Amino acid sequence: MSMSDFEAILKAYERSGGNPHFLKSSRVASLVVSGNRILGANEVAGIHLISEPLPDGVRVKVVIEPGIKLDTPAHLCFGVIPTEGTQRILSEFEIGAGAKADFIAHCTFPNAKRIVHLMEAQIHVGRDAQMKYSETHYHGEEGGAEVLPKAQIVVDEGGQYTAEFTLTTGRVGKLDLDYVVDVGAHGVAELTTKAYGYGTDTISVKETIHLNGEAARGLAKARIAVRDQATSEVIGTTEGNAPFARGHVDCIEIVRDKAIANAIPVVKVTDPRAYVTHEAAIGTVDKKELETLMARGLDEETAVDVIIRGMLR
Question: Does pTM surpass 0.90?
Answer without folding.
Answer: yes
